[in-house]
Amino acid sequence: MEKRKTPRSGSGHIILLVILLLLTGILLAGCGPSNKAPAPSSPDHTERILPVWETPAGNRPDSKLEEMNIDYTRESFGPDGGFRAIIGDDYRDVEQELDTVTWLREIKPGYEKETFEDEPFLIPYLSEGSDTAVIVIPGGGYVFKSIDSDTREGNKVARTLQQNGLNAFVLHYRSNPYEYPLPLLDVQRAVRYLRHHSADYGLDPEKISLMGFSAGGYEAGGFIHLVQGRDLFPKDYTPDEVDREDDHVRCAALIYPALSFDHNVGVLFCLFNDEDVRDPVKRAEMLKNTDLKTNLTPSSDIPRFVAWGDADTVVGLGPKEYVDAVRAAGGDITDVRAPGQDHSFGQKYYMDEYLKWIREQ
Length: 361
Fold this sequence. Notes:
The chain is built from eleven helices and eight strands.
């Protein structure tokens, strides 16, 4: 009888590996290419997010891409991060440039949807024993949110507050192509959400404050000056029990904030109808109505903290102009100047002063 040869174990491993590779190839071929955007990978996108709306006011199932002016031939947003188009006092038609940056930085990576159905949320950083809440609002020029690609205005600030005995809640709000007042309504809803759920997080509902950076500074300042206490809901929106909560905040901190669009005229394309922005008369009216230093009421009773750089090439001296206007009107305001600093300066220029200030409120 012929004796069979038993293959050596090394040969068996090779055969098995070949079979596995063939099976893997078949499975991958069956899957085919996917046109789904990759899942967000930002350190601030976690499973502990708190959606603030049941049904976000102003949302609709329509495609953003059909309403945006996107240059799909571009594959990157450039070394300036997409900020170039929003900087400057002079009007330029930058709709396509801004829409393209929004596509590249927000929609294509999967941070936001291709339809007007995004769900604003809060990310909690809780500090045991604290009953104070700070809503942290990152910037991004309304073209994107810095929280989606960086941590300086979100995660890192929130952790600093948390480590100093303050509950922090980072807000991911709607931006381009959502139009005014929807981004500011997300701030209003976040305040009301925390009031409504204050017992769940051990919060004193009278100790809710805001802390906004850059465009997030406008979110905070625009809320207290233009939105707080007002019903600006779309006509087709039905308010719920959360919307019946008071929206008053204890105080607001504005860090290298955009407090008017005089120095950032291009931002109007992110917040308003593009044809209206192109109309010189309507554009002038927009700039007037959104300039917070000339629209100070009804928030004169809210203490404000402003940190600004005296070499800011993005918002110019807009924050200083705002501080002067509030002081002239008798408002409660504290300001910290960061000597020689441009936009997006670090915590070392304001955090110690801010922590001392908020504990006095």
